[in-house]
Design brief:
Order of helices and strands: EHEHEHEHEHEEHEEEHEEHEH
Protein name: NAD-dependent epimerase/dehydratase
Shape: globular
Organism: Desulfitobacterium hafniense (strain DSM 10664 / DCB-2)
CATH topology of the largest domain: Rossmann fold
Pfam family, one: Epimerase
CATH superfamily of the largest domain: NAD(P)-binding Rossmann-like Domain
Family: Belongs to the NAD(P)-dependent epimerase/dehydratase family.
Strand order of the largest sheet: 3-2-1-4-5-6-11
CATH architecture of the largest domain: 3-Layer(aba) Sandwich
Strand content: 15-25%
Radius of gyration: 19 Å
Oligomer: single chain
C-alpha cells in the first residue's frame, strides 16, 4: 500500500488517519466538495493531493482516473442522531449518493480495495440489523449497495463499525467536550440517569484499526466483504465515565443525573461484533482522558 484515497478527511477521525498515513510515507489523495473545507481543517498544512468533487458520477470517475489509489478509506458521512424532515436530502446525498458514486468510480477504474466506516448503531438491541436511527439505516443501505459491487467481483471490502471514539482537540460535540466545558464553567448539565454503557476507543487506536484493515483488505479473496467492530476491552456506564473524569481532572462536575429522560431508542448496551484480527485497544480510558486533558 503506497497510494491511498480518503473521504471524510477533514473530520476528526479522517484527519487523524490522514496524518498517520503521511507519517508512514504514503501518498494521500482526499476528496472534498469544497477545497476550503480542507484549507480550514486540521490537515490544512498537510501535503495531500486535493480533489474537488462536483457532485456527479462522471466527476468522481475522473478523480479516480487521476488519483489511481490502491486502497480507499471511506469515512465521509452525514451524522444526525435524531433527524428532522429537512435533514433527508443531505443524509441521502452524503451517505448514499456520494457513496455509490464512489463505488462506481472504483469499479470503472479497477480500484478494488475499500475500507468502509460503519456504526454499531446498525444493530440496536444486538440484532443482526435493526437501525437505531435513520443515519444508521443509511449506513446499512450503503453496505447493501456495496454488496452488488463485491459479489460481482469488482471490489473487496472491510467495514469497521465504530462505537464511541474520542481524543484530544475533538471538535465534535461529544461527551468529553461537554465534561470539559462544565468542569470549567460550573454550569449544570441535565443528563439521563446515565446507566447506558459506552465503548470508548481512543483516536490513536481507531487509526490503528483503519491501517490494519487497509493491509488486511489486500489479502481478501475476490467477492469477499467482512465486517468488524472497533471496541475496547471494557465498557463503562456514562456515570462511571463521569466519575473517572472527575477523579483524573480533580474537578467536580455539576451533573443532574436523571433530569432528562433517555432518548427514543437509547442504546443501553452497544453492539460488539467480531473484532479485527491483530488489533486491540492499547490506550485505557484513564490514559486517554489524561491525554485529552494534557492537550
Amino acid at each position: 500500500m503506497n497510494k491511498v484515497l480518503v473521504t471524510g478527511a477533514t473530520g476528526f477521525i479522517g484527519s487523524n488517519l490522514v496524518k498517520r498515513l503521511l507519517k508512514n510515507n504514503l501518498e494521500v489523495h482526499v476528496v472534498t466538495r469544497d477545497r476550503s473545507h480542507v484549507e480550514q481543517s486540521a490537515i490544512s498544512d498537510s501535503p495531500v493531493v486535493i480533489h474537488q468533487h462536483d457532485g456527479t458520477t462522471a466527476g468522481m470517475i475522473e478523480i479516480f482516473q487521476a488519483a489511481q489509489p490502491e486502497v480507499v478509506f471511506h469515512l465521509a458521512a452525514k451524522f444526525v442522531a435524531e433527524h428532522e424532515s429537512q435533514d433527508i436530502n443531505e443524509l441521502m446525498d452524503s451517505n448514499l449518493l456520494f457513496g455509490v458514486q464512489l463505488l462506481e468510480a472504483m469499479a470503472v477504474t479497477g480500484v478494488q480495495q475499500l475500507v468502509n466506516t460503519g456504526t454499531a448503531w446498525q444493530h440496536f438491541e444486538q440484532e443482526a440489523y435493526n437501525p437505531v436511527n435513520l443515519y444508521a439505516a443509511t449506513k446499512q443501505a450503503f453496505e447493501t449497495l456495496a454488496a452488488y459491487y463485491v459479489r460481482t467481483g469488482l471490489l473487496k471490502m472491510i467495514t469497521l463499525k465504530l462505537i464511541d471514539t474520542y481524543g484530544p482537540n475533538d471538535p465534535r460535540t461529544k461527551i468529553f467536550t461537554l465534561f470539559k466545558r462544565i468542569s470549567l464553567s460550573g454550569e449544570r448539565l441535565n443528563m439521563s440517569p446515565g446507566e447506558q454503557r459506552l465503548g470508548l476507543v481512543y483516536i490513536d487506536d481507531v487509526v490503528d484499526a483503519f491501517l490494519i484493515a487497509g493491509q488486511y483488505v489486500e489479502d481478501l479473496t475476490d467477492c469477499e466483504m467482512l465486517s468488524y467492530t472497533v471496541a475496547p476491552e471494557r465498557l463503562y456506564s456514562l456515570r462511571e465515565v463521569a466519575a473517572l473524569y472527575e477523579t483524573i481532572s480533580g474537578k467536580r462536575m455539576n451533573i443532574g443525573w436523571g433530569e432528562r429522560p433517555y432518548r427514543s431508542r437509547e442504546v443501553m448496551e452497544p453492539y460488539v461484533g467480531p473484532t479485527l484480527p491483530d488489533w486491540e485497544a492499547k490506550v485505557s480510558l484513564a490514559e486517554g482522558i489524561r491525554k485529552c486533558l494534557d492537550a
